[in-house]
């Protein structure tokens, strides 16, 4: 196929996209169908210029570009339409969205208008990774009974596409050992939300944020997201520069969203304080609600019985390896105890970034060379993780900061007593019972708490009883409440 | 065409002008599609973006020096590996 043929097909595809959106921007389908592509674009541009509605500008810009325009592009089109005379307004739209149009890889993209909520599960659909946020998404989204469409970004990054069967399986039927398969969906229909909603249960990648911010600001669709934490900006020293950069830009979506459902009261307080900073920009910010995560053991089934006591007690810590989680504090506290003569095995489960794994492994090796029993496991399956929770005498999680602390409730749901931090979301969880709270920056305090649980069976049994009496949500209940928070009108 | 309408002197010219305008409008769309699809002309904003990309190696070198000084060689290589992985994932 030569360039002329491709242009002809591209123009035909553009006309077809304009016909799809014509009724939504105020041009009757009957009239639109009679027009060639140039006059059709002019008719739509005139209709949009006459209404001055941001959602119509966004929709027309999306149809012309075959991808979601950025905030700068929608603003350029809006200003261009205001200044251009009737009959030449189409040029304002064309020049305004040229950048996004040039980034669309396929020449023949069609569009599909979607009024059901679009659920962005891009990361879960394209990665097999399954910690924190992915566990929440994969445990929640498949349980939503309301009509919705799962979506992932096209590889060219210009818009949402329906999931391929393999992507859908990775979201709704993930299992240990699952693999992500690359999918070229550039030529699939672009999903265009109209009078609907965009739900963001994940934190989007940096490259999609400019387009999402534009959707949140202009498209007229309701935007709901899960607020996991504000750690990348309030504790930038504990994450990579890339993470902080991403979150800072993500706030552009947050401030124009309708609802943020936070995974703990602590995180809700953080997002409410962000709202205060948005007020300085004349923006009200989203409605911030709290919905603590469920308390379910890994695999979903509560253990009928905790594992029988073992000769050498197991002290377990689960969580990705990063300085914020404070594995080094636990290692130091354990060394204090071993030097006091305590007998127990320490086990860490969790992967992490290469640079910290190298540092952490060196520290662990140094302790091992002293003859102390410490092990590190990575790439552990869900069934092995569940077994580890059951086998543990004590679960320790003295993280320096968390949005919630999922491993804490997974341990409690398994019937294992927990030592965790005495502030923030972790203290919030501890209030429900089954936990000892400590200052995570005090290694001696961590050591004392572990020792108490190792030598005081009465205390341990009382914490186990408290853990069993906790009344947490199930994933199904959480999913239902989250859907209602996203979809019900905000007061 | 009815005699009354044909009696209006410029009617046919007006029709011709509308058709010519419509043809020009469609031609402009075709030219725009050719530009954005095949890049015969780079839009100004893309040109700006390209000029930013040309300065990127300098910015990358500055970032590398900053990371090396602040975090040491281990984290530096970890950062390089992470960015290369991301680059490969995007291609």
List the helices and strands and how they pair.
The complex is a heterodimer of chains A (491) and B (91).
Chain A lengths: L2 H23 L3 H5 L3 H15 L2 H12 L5 H13 L5 H8 L1 H6 L7 E4 L3 E3 L1 H5 L5 H9 L8 E5 L6 E3 L2 H8 L17 E4 L3 E4 L5 H13 L3 E6 L3 H4 L6 H14 L4 E4 L2 H15 L7 E4 L23 E5 L8 H13 L5 E5 L4 H16 L4 E4 L4 H10 L2 E4 L8 H9 L3 E4 L2 H7 L4 E4 L4 H13 L1 H12 L6 H13 L4
Parallel strand pairs in A: 1-5, 2-3, 2-6, 6-7, 7-8, 8-9, 10-11, 10-13, 11-12, 13-14, 14-15
Antiparallel strand pairs in A: 3-4
Helix pairs in contact in A: 1-3, 1-4, 4-5, 5-6, 11-13, 15-16, 15-20
Chain B lengths: L2 H4 L4 H28 L5 H47 L1
> What oligomeric state do the depicted chains represent?
heterodimer
What amount of the residues of chain B lies in strands?
A: under 5%
* Termini separation of chain B: 61 Å
- Largest sheet descriptor of chain A: 7 strands, mixed
Name the structural class of chain A. alpha/beta
DSSP summary, beta strand count of chain B: 0
Terminal residue distance of chain A: 56 Å
Unreliable spans of chain B:
none
Q: Say how many strands of chain A there are.
A: 15
Shape of chain B: rod-shaped
Considering DSSP H and I runs of 4 or more, what fraction of the residues of chain A is helical?
40-55%
Q: What is the CA-based Rg of chain B, rounded?
A: 29 Å
Name the chain pair with the biggest interface and residue counts per chain: A-B, 31 and 30 residues
Largest sheet of chain B: none
Show unreliable segments of chain A: none
């Amino acid at each position: 196929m030569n360039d002329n043929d491709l242009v002809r097909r591209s123009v035909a595809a553009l006309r077809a996209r304009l016909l799809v959106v014509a009724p939504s921007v105020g041009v009757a389908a009957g009239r639109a169908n009679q027009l060639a592509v140039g006059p059709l674009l002019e008719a739509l541009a005139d209709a949009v210029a006459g209404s001055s509605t941001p959602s119509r500008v966004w929709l027309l810009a999306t149809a012309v570009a075959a991808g979601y325009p950025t905030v700068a592009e929608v603003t350029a089109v809006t200003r261009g339409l205001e200044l251009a005379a009737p009959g030449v307004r189409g040029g304002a739209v064309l020049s305004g969205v040229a950048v996004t149009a040039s980034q669309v890889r396929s020449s023949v993209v069609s569009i599909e208008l979607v009024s059901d909520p679009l659920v962005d599960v891009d990361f879960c659909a394209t990665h097999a990774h399954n910690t924190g946020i992915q566990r929440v998404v994969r445990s929640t989204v498949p349980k939503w009974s309301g009509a919705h469409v799962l979506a992932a970004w096209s590889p060219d990054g210009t818009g949402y596409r329906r999931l391929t069967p393999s992507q859908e399986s990775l979201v709704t039927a993930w299992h240990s050992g699952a693999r992500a398969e690359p999918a070229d969906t550039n030529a699939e229909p672009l999903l265009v939300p109209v009078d609907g909603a965009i739900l963001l249960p994940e934190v989007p990648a940096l490259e999609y944020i400019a387009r999402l911010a534009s959707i949140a600001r202009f498209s007229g669709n309701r935007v709901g997201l899960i607020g996991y934490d504000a750690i990348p900006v309030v504790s930038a020293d504990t994450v990579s520069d890339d993470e902080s950069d991403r979150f800072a830009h993500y706030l552009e979506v947050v401030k124009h969203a309708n609802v943020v459902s936070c995974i703990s009261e602590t995180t809700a307080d953080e997002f409410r304080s962000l709202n205060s900073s948005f007020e300085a920009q004349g923006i009200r910010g989203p409605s911030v609600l709290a919905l603590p995560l469920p308390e379910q053991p890994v695999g979903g089934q509560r253990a009928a019985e905790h594992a029988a006591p073992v000769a050498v007690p197991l002290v377990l810590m689960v969580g990705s390896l990063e300085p914020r989680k404070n594995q080094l504090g636990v290692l130091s506290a354990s060394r204090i105890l071993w030097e006091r003569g305590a007998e127990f095995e320490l086990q860490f489960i969790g992967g992490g970034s290469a640079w910290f794994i190298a540092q952490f492994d060196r520290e662990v090796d140094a302790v091992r060379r002293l003859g102390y029993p410490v092990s590190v496991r990575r790439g552990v399956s869900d069934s092995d993780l569940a077994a580890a929770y059951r086998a543990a005498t004590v679960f320790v999680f003295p993280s320096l900061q968390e949005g919630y602390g999922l491993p804490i409730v997974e341990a409690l749901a398994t019937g294992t007593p927990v030592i965790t931090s005495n502030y923030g979301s972790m203290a919030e969880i501890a209030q429900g019972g089954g936990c000892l709270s400590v200052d995570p920056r005090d290694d001696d305090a961590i050591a004392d708490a572990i020792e108490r649980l190792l030598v005081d069976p009465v205390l341990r049994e009382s914490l186990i009883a408290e853990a069993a009496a906790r009344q947490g949500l199930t994933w199904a209940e959480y999913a239902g409440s989250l859907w209602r928070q996203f979809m019900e009108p905000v007061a | 065409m009815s005699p009354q309408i044909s009696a209006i002197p410029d009617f046919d010219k007006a029709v011709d002008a509308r058709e010519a305008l419509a043809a020009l409008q469609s031609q402009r769309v075709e030219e725009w599609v050719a530009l954005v699809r095949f890049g015969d002309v780079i839009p100004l904003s893309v040109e700006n973006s390209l000029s930013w990309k040309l300065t990127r190696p300098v910015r990358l070198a500055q970032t590398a020096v900053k990371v090396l000084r602040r975090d040491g060689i281990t984290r530096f290589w970890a950062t390089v590996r992470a960015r290369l992985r991301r680059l490969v994932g995007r291609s």
